[in-house]
Write a structure and sequence with these properties.
By secondary structure, the protein is mostly helical. It has a single domain, classed as Cytochrome c-like domain (Cytochrome Bc1 Complex, Chain D, domain 2), CATH 1.10.760. 50% of the residues lie in helices and 7% in strands. The strands form two sheets. The chain has a two-stranded antiparallel sheet. A two-stranded antiparallel ribbon has the order 2-3. The protein is globular, with a radius of gyration of 19 Å. Bound molecules: heme C. Heme C (HEC) is lined by residues 40-41, 43-45, 56-57, 59, 62, 64, 71, 74-75, 79-81, 83, 85, 90-94, 97, 107, 111.
């Protein structure tokens, strides 16, 4: 009986530990992404992700954040050209920003999982391939 109790306790502990590991990893990326966003993006896209009407596009529920390759390119190489978002038109420019692959993945995970946005998490290992991927209609800065 004692043996069974010990076994039960051990498996319970393992389950708790395992669930902690599983949930803490993604959150760490999103949490660090918030810091990256506050450092590099907040001045234009604003704390609430709503941007500035007519100048800086919103990143909130626009349906424009689904292509992770496009996001990686926008962040690192910037973008130009017309954009239509929730009825507002933009024809501005955003310069690329120099940052590590980890910072890119973290900030993507943050913007895609904040302000009501929901998307799968991007791994750091996916960033190099995204940099060289062909993205239709995308114009770098
Ligand atoms: C100096 C201001 C500025 C900063 C800083 C900036 N952006 Fe931008 N961003 C813009 C502008 C302007 C556009 C629209 C460019 C255009 O009209 O082609 C844009 C476009 C975008 C888009 C495309 C939106 C869409 O709906 O297609 C994304 C995504 C984006 N920015 C993310 C970011 C992220 C993430 C950061 C920080 C790493 C960042 N931006 C930093 C000004 C900025």
């Amino acid at each position: 009986m004692k043996k069974i109790t010990t076994l039960l306790c051990a498996s319970l502990l393992a389950t708790i530990c395992l669930s902690f590991v599983q949930t803490s990893a993604p959150n760490a990326s999103i949490q660090n992404g918030k810091k990256v966003y506050e450092t590099y993006c907040i001045s234009c896209h604003m704390e609430n992700g709503m941007g500035v009407e007519g100048a800086f596009p919103a990143l909130v529920k626009t349906g424009n954040l689904s292509d992770k390759n496009r996001l990686v390119k926008i962040i690192l190489q910037g973008m130009r050209g017309p954009l239509k978002i929730n009825g507002s038109s933009f024809d501005g420019e955003m310069a690329g920003i120099e940052m590590t692959d980890k910072e890119v993945a973290d900030v993507i995970n943050y913007i895609r999982n904040t302000w009501g946005n929901k998307a799968p998490l991007v791994q750091v290992s996916e960033i190099p391939a995204a940099k060289i991927a062909v993205v239709k209609g995308y114009q770098p800065y």
